[in-house]
Amino acid sequence: MAFWDELDRFGGAPALVGEDGAVTSYAALAAAADRWAAGLGPGRQLVFLLCENTAPTVTAYLGCLRARHVPLLLDARLRRALLDGLVAAYQPQAVVTPDGAIEPRPAPPVTLHADLALLLTTSGTTGSPKLVRLAARNLDANAAGIVATLGITAADRPITSLPLHYSYGLSVLHSHLAAGAATVLTGRSVLERAFFACADRTTATSLAGVPYTYQLLDRLGFFAAYSHPSLVTFTQAGGKLAPDLARAVAAHCAAHGRRFFTMYGQTEAAPRMACLPAERALDKLGSVGWPLPGGSVSLDDGELVYRGPNVMLGYATARADLARGDDCHGVLRTGDRATIDADGAVTITGRSARFLKITGQRLSLDEIEAALNSSGVTVAAVGGDDRLVLVTTDAAAADGLRRAVRRRFGIHPAHVEVHAVGALPLDSRGKVRYTELQEAFG
């Protein structure tokens, strides 16, 4: 059985802790999830779950998993037009609001593959109809691998520094529920004093972050003036952390008896694939470490290929795809270029596909470019982790492009550079020479 089917085994132990200190036990959480799921009615259903870092969201999510409904997790703040597009594409039988309220939707019957347990988006808040199809075995295997790799016990207590609709944030919840640990729920940002006041008050023991999280903490002097004794474990994924900052965080943790784990993953792997143990954080700096238990890696012409029980069933781009079985058979071509050293440790060196990550969100450069070009401005998109670079032939379009990517894709202007050129470099086929633009501006 998957971990969500066995919540009751932890009985009265705390499962969720609210900002106000209110505790929900495992037994109470399981009962509440089952009661909530009963409200959906008979039959296996496709459910859109609008998520916040709250007990009602967790309850509804676990209710779906326990009753074998299939949820798609979405940001509760997703723009209405994008939500409407997804609803039109997939026709869910219910949409669930952040407070757990069920809004039934008229929809024709849907065929859901027997193995399908969860749907996640591939590209943050863009509203793309491309979804990742995950099986129960994918989620359960990944949670178990993370528990083993990080040594998570029932005494651990993470705080939700990442959103639950984001695969990395969701995996924090999964791994700690699998270990019988309590998760502190807050929707506050690490920029808010109230976030760390909550962490101190609830004796949170671990914090997960993407590179941007650690950049913010560094600007705030968080590690230089450390004053949160219960927080002893830090994990980082969602892109590559700058070497100097990674070294500083790892050195701080090593000097003060704390732990810093660098991890690597993709939503397509439910989502974590590799981890650099805390004790190797300095001597293997820059590496993402070794595959999680049950996983293995290899290189195919420089591209990292991952094999493991956590690899997705495949993608969906339309409702009919929800009936598909396992297209991947445990093999994921990551689209990342990498090296593997003599010890078997993996270092990511770049991306072979046109994707980037900004504040942990995986975004398609082709999708961004197509959306901007449809407005009549000629744009080519390149960039790197935490930086989108737009090259345009319209020098007056810079401010408009920044507003457009913020409105359409949720990318803050601080992460956007715009460069004007007389003409985009094209090859003999009339295709943009992205390598040239990347070398010039990326």
Describe the secondary structure blueprint for this structure.
Layout: E1 14-17, E2 23-25, H1 26-38, E3 46-51, H2 55-67, E4 70-75, H3 80-90, E5 94-96, E6 102-104, E7 116-121, E8 131-135, H4 136-150, E9 158-159, H5 167-178, E10 183-184, H6 193-201, E11 206-209, H7 211-219, E12 233-236, H8 243-255, E13 259-265, E14 272-276, E15 290-291, E16 296-300, E17 303-307, E18 314-316, E19 331-340, E20 346-351, E21 355-358, E22 361-364, H9 365-373, E23 379-384, E24 387-392, H10 398-409, E25 416-420, H11 434-441
Parallel strand pairs: 1-10, 3-4, 3-5, 9-11, 11-12, 12-13, 24-25
Antiparallel strand pairs: 1-2, 5-6, 7-8, 8-18, 13-14, 14-15, 16-17, 17-19, 19-20, 21-22, 23-24
Helix pairs in contact: 1-2, 4-5
Distance between the termini: 47 Å
Shape: globular
Summarize the main sheet: 6 strands, mixed
CATH hierarchy: architecture of the largest domain: 3-Layer(aba) Sandwich
- Supply the helix-strand structural class: alpha/beta
β-strand amount: 25-35%
What is the overall pLDDT average?
A: 93
Order of strands in the sheet with the most strands?
Answer: 9-11-12-13-14-15
Query: In CATH, what is the class of the largest domain?
Result: Alpha Beta
Overview of the molecule:
The protein is of the alpha/beta class and 442 residues long. The protein folds into 2 domains: 3-350, Rossmann fold (3-Layer(aba) Sandwich); 355-441, ANL, C-terminal domain (GMP Synthetase, Chain A, domain 3), CATH 3.30.300. It contains 11 helices and 25 strands. It has helices spanning 26-38, 55-67, 80-90, 136-150, 167-178, 193-201, 211-219, 243-255, 365-373, 398-409, 434-441, and strands at residues 14-17, 23-25, 46-51, 70-75, 94-96, 102-104, 116-121, 131-135, 158-159, 183-184, 206-209, 233-236, 259-265, 272-276, 290-291, 296-300, 303-307, 314-316, 331-340, 346-351, 355-358, 361-364, 379-384, 387-392, 416-420. The chain has a 6-stranded mixed β-sheet. It has a 4-stranded mixed β-sheet with strand order 4-3-5-6, with helices on one face. A hairpin with a 5-residue loop joins strand 1 and strand 2. Helix 1 crosses helix 2. The model has no long low-confidence stretch (mean pLDDT 93).
